[in-house]
Each structure stands twice: as C-alpha cells, then as structure tokens.
Design brief:
378 residues, alpha+beta, Immunoglobulin-like, 4 helices, flat
C-alpha cells in the first residue's frame, strides 16, 4: 500500500518536470522561428535599394574613368653610327597620343647648335606628329651626343628626354692641322700641306684661298689621287699690309664627303707689342689714362733703334693720345702714353678704339684699347 502511494507520487513529479521542460523548449523554438521570419517593412526597403541600383547607369556603378593623354615616342635615341665631319644631318622622332584626351607639348628644349621643328603642338587621341632636328656635325673626330627635352601635359611623363648619338669619323686627314708664318724672317716660308684619303677614294684639289690673299698655291684640278701635297707661297707685300694676326686657309676638294678643308694659321709679326691690348677699369671721365707699351723688333738684322722707326701714334676713331717718353733698349723700346677717350663718358660706360703705331717702313701696328669708366654716384 505504501509502495503504491510512493510510486504514484514519483510519477506525478516526473510528469511536472517533463511538462516544464517541454514548455521551455516550445518557448525557445517560437522565439527562434520568430527571429527567422523577415520583417515585411525591412524586406521592402531592401528591395527598393536593389531596384534603385539596377536603375543606375553602368558607369555610375563602377569607378569613375578619367580621360588622360599619353605620349608614345617611336624611339628614345636616334643613333647615326658614323657621320662625316661638317656634314648636315636630320633626325626625326614620331610622337603619338595613345591616351583618351588631347596631348599638349608645351615646350621643346634643345641643345646648342640644333634646329628643332615640331609638326604639331597638340595631338588628339590616336593622332601622331613628327619632331625634326637638324644640325651640322663637328669638323674634328669626336663623339656625337645631343639631347632634346619635351615638356608635356601627360601626368605620367611630364618630361621626356630624347637623344641623338653617333661618332664623327673623318675620311680625309691633312697635316699640319694649323701653322705659323714668321713675318719677321728674311725668307718667309710656309709649310707644305699634305692631304690624304683615309677611305682610299681619289680626289682632286679645285680651289685654294687664304685670308688677305697672303698665301697662294699651284695645283692641277684634273689630277686625282688618294694623297696630294700643296706648297703654299707667301706674298710678302700682302702679308706686310695685313691688319690681322690670325687667318685661315680654305682648300676645295672633290672628295665625296668634303667640299673643302680648313687650316688656321697665325702670323708672327715683325714687331711684338706688350701688352697686346690695353684694358682700363674705373677710369675717371675727363682725365687721361696713363699706360706703357713695349715694342720689340724680332728681326735678326734689327738695328736696335726701334724708337727712331716710329713715325706716329694715333687713334683710329677719335681718341686722343700723347707720347710722353720713348726709351730704346736692345732691339726694342718703351713708350709712355697718355690716353684721352673720345665721346660721351657716362657712368659705367665702355669706350673702345684702336691705337695705331705707324712705322716709317710702312708697317702699321694695331693695339685694341678698352676703357670702362668709374660708376658715378646718383
């Protein structure tokens, strides 16, 4: 009896606990289900956003594209390899706008001695233009290296440097490359000039000339060879009358790479003047400039009386000079001069003239004179 009662009481307790657990499970299940059910208002808002996005143009949905120019050059270096001395050369570069907006070339910076021609300063997308560079190669063997800089509105390449390269290679050689003429010698001579073809091509001489016509040479324009020698002769009268101390010989040839070759020469005069030029700074306007000159006779037969050979001392273009003393010494003399510049003499003005020393034998000595006046107070 008691056992039966205990059993019934235990079953009731078990049933209550089971009912409580089931109830709690149902509550949790209902909450979980309610959380998975979409809110109608939220769903409507999400759908509106999706529809709005679908209604926008494709370019608005992606990153905005910016139109930019882009310069492309067919070559960054134009290599001539070998060029002939004094030859005229032309280098071309093709410029193309590979971008999507107008390309502008704002400046072309060239090296000295080159002429640059730009076909177009503005290029539309896909358009091309030509940059042409002309120059004359040097007369001596040397490396050729010229630079050209372009300034553009290309944000990636605002500056582009182009190069022109090569090497000047002669096909003619001559000796001497330059020479001196000693005008003070009893017998005035000029060295022989030998011209040789380095590429073996025969040539002829078709012309010869010199500054002041003080040199002449005999030649046969019909005679061709790979090596020719000329024997210039000095015209003493024209050499004595020359008012220059440096000259040039021009020899015209028929070689395919040359029209002419040039040789520089210097004249060593009979009389040497020291200093060779007079330059005065901070001179006082209206006051004489005092200077001393030495005149030396280079001839071996000079008598030593140089002062006695001086006939007059004057200025060429209006300056005034006074000889205040002459002293002989050896084969030369020393002169003390007072110089008055001509013309208006303002502050920081520069006056230039030529001092002329006339010798009794007919020679005329020339000394350049430059006077810079002192700055005047304002």
């Amino acid at each position: 009896m008691c056992a039966a009662k205990f059993y019934l009481r235990s079953m009731r307790s078990y049933a209550c606990v089971s009912f409580s657990i089931c109830g709690l499970s149902m509550i949790l299940l209902c909450q979980g289900c309610s959380s998975n059910v979409a809110d109608p208002r939220k769903a409507d808002a999400q759908e509106c956003v999706k529809q709005e996005a679908r209604s926008q143009p494709m370019e608005m949905q992606q990153v905005v594209r910016v139109d930019l120019p882009r310069i492309v050059v067919d070559k960054m270096t134009y290599d001539f390899a070998e060029v002939r001395p004094d030859s005229k050369k032309t280098a071309t570069f093709r410029l193309t706008n590979a971008g999507s907006s107008t390309l502008r070339i704002t400046d072309v910076q060239r090296c000295c001695g080159a002429v640059v021609k730009l076909e177009k300063k503005e290029l539309s997308p896909g358009e091309s233009g030509v940059l042409t560079t002309e120059f004359v190669a040097g007369s001596m063997p040397q490396a050729l290296n010229k630079k050209i800089r372009l300034l553009t509105n290309d944000p990636e390449k605002p500056q582009i440097e182009l190069a022109i390269t090569g090497k000047v290679v002669p096909t003619l050689a001559w000796t001497p490359p330059r020479f001196e003429i000693a005008a003070y010698q009893e017998i005035i001579t000029c060295p022989e000039i030998t011209i040789k073809s380095l590429d073996g091509k025969p040539f002829a001489v078709k012309g010869f000339s010199a500054t002041g016509a003080c040199l002449t040479a005999d030649f046969d324009p019909s005679h061709t060879a790979s090596e020719l020698t000329l024997k210039p002769q000095v015209d003493r009268a024209k050499l004595a009358a020359a008012e220059f101390s440096n000259g040039r010989v021009k020899i015209e040839v028929t070689h395919p790479d040359y029209e002419a070759i040039y040789l520089d020469f210097a004249i060593k005069p009979v009389f040497e003047i020291t200093p060779a030029r007079i330059f005065v700074v901070n001179a006082e306007p209206g006051r004489a400039v005092l200077r001393t000159l030495q005149v030396q006779d280079r001839r071996t037969t000079a008598s030593g009386d140089v002062a006695g050979q001086i006939e007059s001392v004057t200025f060429k273009d209006g300056g005034r000079v006074e000889v205040r003393g002459v002293t002989n010494g050896g084969k030369g003399c020393e002169m003390s001069l007072a110089i008055w510049p001509a013309g208006e003499q303002t502050r920081e003005s520069l006056w230039s003239d030529q001092l002329l020393i006339q010798m009794k034998e007919g020679r005329q000595l020339t000394i350049p004179v430059h006077v810079l006046f002192k700055t005047q107070p304002l």
